[in-house]
Amino acid sequence: MWIPLAGLLLFAASCAVFAAGPGAVRKQVEGSMLVTGRVTIEQDGSVSGWTIDQREALPAGVSGLVDRVAPQWQFEPVLVDGQPVRGNARMSLRVAAKRLDDGNYEVWIRDGYFGRDALSPEERVAGALRDEYVSAVEMRPPSYPMRALEVNAQGTVYLVLRVDRQGRVADAIVEQVNLRTIGSETQMRQMRDMLAKPALARAREWQFNIPTAGEWKDDDSWSLRVPVDFFIADRRDAGRQVGYGQWDTYVPGPRAPVPWETGDAASISPDTLIAGEVHQAGASRKLLTPLGG
Question: What is the pTM of this model?
Answer without folding.
Answer: 0.82
